Amino acid sequence: MTVFFTYSFISVISFSESDGNKTQVTEFVLTGLTDCPGLQVPLFLVFLVIYLTTMVGNLGLIFLIWKDPHLHTPMYLLLGSLAFADACSSSSVTPRMLMNFLSNNHMISLVECITQFYIFASSANTECFLLVVMAYDRYVAICNPLLYPVVMSNIFCIQLLSVSYIIGFLHPMLHVSLLFRLTFCKSNVIHYFYCEILQLFKISCTDPRVNMLLIFIFSVFIQSFTFMTIIISYSYVLFTILKKKSEKGRSKAFSTCSAHLLSVSLFYGTLFFMYVCPGSGRAENQDKMYSVFYTIIIPLLNPFIYSLRNQEVIGALRRIINT
C-alpha cells in the first residue's frame, strides 16, 4: 500500500500560473475493484477465465460465421459485427484490470486513460446501433419475408453496418475533445477499475457541468431513440409471430427474438442506470457492479445468448468439427 501512495505522489507535477502555484495531474492511479490484498489473486483468476471465455466465444463466433457459407447472410453478418464490438469492449478494460490485480503499480497516463475511455465508448455506442439494425433485420425477415432478400441485401446490410460504426466512433470524439478542457489537480486517484468518464469528472478542478450535461443529453437521446426503435420493431415482430399458424415457425421466431431481447435488456438496463440516472445516491460499489456487468459480463454472455439455442450456429459448429 505504501508503494501505491508513493506512485500517487510522484505522478503529480507542479507548475506556475498567474494566480499562484497549482498542481497538474499527468498520470492517474486506478484503485481497482477492491483494495483487499487477499482478494487480488482470486479476482485475477476469475476475470482471467471470464476474459479468455469472452474472447473464445466472440472470436470463435466470428470465425464460424466467416468459415461457414450457410451463415453468410445479413443476420449473421450483423451478429459477427456485434461479437467484434463485444471483443473490443472487453479488451479495452479487462487486460489493464488483470495487470493491476498482480501489480503494485496502478498508474495510467492521461493519454492512456482517455484512449481507454474512447475505445470502450466507441464499442458501446456502436453496439447500440448494431442492436437497432439487428431488430430491423428481424422485423423485415418475420413481418415481410418475401421482401427480405430485396430489402436486406448484403450491400444494404454493409451500408447499415458502416453507418453504425461511423456514428459509434464519431460520437465519443465529442466527449474526448471536451475532456481536454478539464484540468486535474485535486487528486490523481480514480476509485474505479478503468477510466470511466464520470469518475474523471469527480477529480476535475475545472467545472465539468458542461461535460456532464452533454453526456446526459446524448445518452438520453441515443439510448431512448435506439431502445424505442428496437421495442417498436420487436412489437411488430411479436404480433406477426402470434398470427403464424405454423407451430414450428412460431417456435423458431420466438427463439431468435427472445435471445435478441434478452441481450437488449441486459445492455440497455445497465447503461440506463449508469449514464441516464447518474448520481442518484448509489453507493460506489454499486456503480462498480453496474460497470463490471456492461464492460465484462455482457460481452461474455452475448455469444452464448445468440448461439446456444441457434440451430444454424450449432449445425455450422458441427460441420467445422467434422471436417
UniProtKB/TrEMBL annotation:
Signal peptide (UniProt feature, chain positions): none
Superkingdom classification of source: Eukaryota
Listed InterPro entries: GPCR_Rhodpsn, GPCR_Rhodpsn_7TM, Olfact_rcpt
Membrane-traversing stretches: 42-64, 76-94, 114-134, 146-170, 213-241, 253-276, 288-308
PROSITE patterns in the cross-refs: G_PROTEIN_RECEP_F1_1, G_PROTEIN_RECEP_F1_2
Pfam family, one: 7tm_4
One Gene Ontology cellular component annotation held by this UniProt entry: plasma membrane
Function comment: Putative odorant or sperm cell receptor.
Name assigned to this protein: Olfactory receptor
Organism: Zalophus californianus
